[in-house]
Write a structure and sequence with these properties.
Largest sheet: 8 strands, mixed
Number of domains: 2
Oligomer: single chain
Shape: globular
Number of helices: 11
């Protein structure tokens, strides 16, 4: 579904019945075979410009542990490293608690689906080669150098110390998904949409050059660029969402391993969930995001062919980042967002197996980043009247309301 342009029919309100959060709780609490797959930033914690300021609530972390095999994270961030979610878990409890010993690390997939972790913090990268890891290790240094050149032209008035500090915060030295996050630079552009567009384009070109270099080194097809938020895909690459006077547009430029998409990660998590319950992995013990077929339809076909209805859990996909904008010619919609693909696949799997499958959308607009708000009854900028993605439940109160609801659900299902 990512990037598909659909006919732009008249923009009438879509009649659609959604569940309240208490009603969704009631539908999930007695499910014998339940799997919640959840994004993190904007869902379990507010969006912030500086990743080092993120915080996780310890009550939420303990609720995750109590959910056991019923819950997995699926994030484009990473578990490990100075900017990883594991550091947030550790800070939530302080030195008096050992998260590894108590099983408090968040289990699931990071880096879009290629960084696997259990609740004791053991990390692996299934399907990733040594050559790919070596190239990725050099990317943060290259991003820092390239960003320095961009800022010297775009913001020549910056003092050297300020420039150095901004680059240190903007370049996320993730091990398998190094990223440029330009949120920390926005305030220095004075609200000038044209200069922000120039920054976006130059950052995009910088990462594209790295893709070209990987190809020259014999790693054609090893990597791709993930843009967040985006306007879907043109069939080859994700579309940049340009800044406008009323919205920031793309802020994250991630250098990702090919196959590291949440849709593939969803199937990995379903496969592992079934293996934990039955001892058998319907997609194979070695199935991972790098060996998974590419494209939503191919993933859906594999899931429907290999996993019988009796083994499929009741799926709940939770995210915050979906987008929908009218196409430039007014004849369709450009739909994207880093959570759209896996949320759509959750819905499609449920439809195929004739099982409940829920899509939960959290309002992340109250964070430090400019996002469309659930206060708009038509959810403009998020969805549209013809959107095939049907949202089961909204969380208008953002991460705080979601975490409260999640903790109540965890207590009920673990009782």
């Amino acid at each position: 579904m990512r990037g598909r342009v659909e006919p732009n029919r008249p923009k009438t309100a879509r009649a659609m019945s959604r569940l309240s959060l208490p009603d969704l709780h009631g539908q999930l609490v007695d499910q014998a075979n339940l799997l919640l797959v959840q994004d993190l930033d904007g869902v379990a914690m507010p969006l912030v410009r500086d990743p080092l300021t993120r915080r996780l609530d310890p009550g939420y972390v303990r609720a995750v542990a109590a959910m056991g095999d019923r819950f997995r994270v699926l994030t484009n961030g990473e578990h490990a490293g100075r900017l990883g979610v594991n550091r947030l878990v550790e800070r939530a409890f302080g030195p008096q608690v050992d998260p590894a010993a108590e099983g408090l690390y968040l289990p699931g997939l990071a880096a879009g689906g290629v960084q696997l972790q259990n609740n004791q913090g053991r990390i692996s990268h299934p399907g990733v080669s040594d050559a790919e890891l070596a190239f990725l290790a050099e990317v943060p240094t290259r991003l820092a150098y390239g960003l320095r050149q961009i800022l010297s032209t775009l913001l020549p008035q910056l003092e050297s110390d300020t420039q150095h500090a901004l680059i240190d915060r903007a370049v996320l030295d993730n091990r398998v998904s190094p990223t440029l996050n330009i949120n920390v630079l926005i305030a220095h552009l004075g609200g000038d949409a044209a200069r922000l567009q120039a920054l976006q384009l130059q950052c995009h070109e910088l990462l594209q050059r790295l893709l070209d270099e990987a190809q020259q080194q014999g790693m054609a097809g090893s990597f791709f660029l993930h843009l967040a938020p985006n306007l879907g895909s043109d069939g080859v690459a994700e579309r940049l969402k340009p800044a406008r006077d009323d919205q920031i547009g793309t802020t994250d430029f991630q250098f990702m391993l090919q196959g590291a998409v949440k849709e593939a990660g969803l199937l990995v998590l379903i496969n592992q969930h079934i293996q934990a319950r039955t001892g058998e992995a319907p997609l194979g013990d070695a199935f991972n995001a790098r060996t998974a077929p590419q494209g939503e339809q191919a993933l859906l076909d594999l899931c429907c062919r290999a996993i019988p209805r009796a083994l499929m859990p009741t799926l709940v996909g939770i995210g915050d980042t979906i987008t929908s904008e009218p196409s430039a010619d007014g004849e369709g919609w450009q739909r994207g967002g880093s959570d759209r693909g896996f949320l759509s696949l959750v819905q499609q799997i449920g439809q195929h197996h004739d099982l409940p499958a829920h899509v939960v959308l959290v309002d992340s607009s109250a964070g430090e980043l400019d996002r469309p708000s659930h206060s708009d009854p038509l959810l403009r900028g998020l969805t549209d009247p013809d959107d095939p993605l049907k949202i089961t439940a909204l969380v208008p109160g953002g991460p705080r309301q979601y975490c409260h609801w999640f903790e109540q659900l965890s207590q009920a299902v673990a009782a």
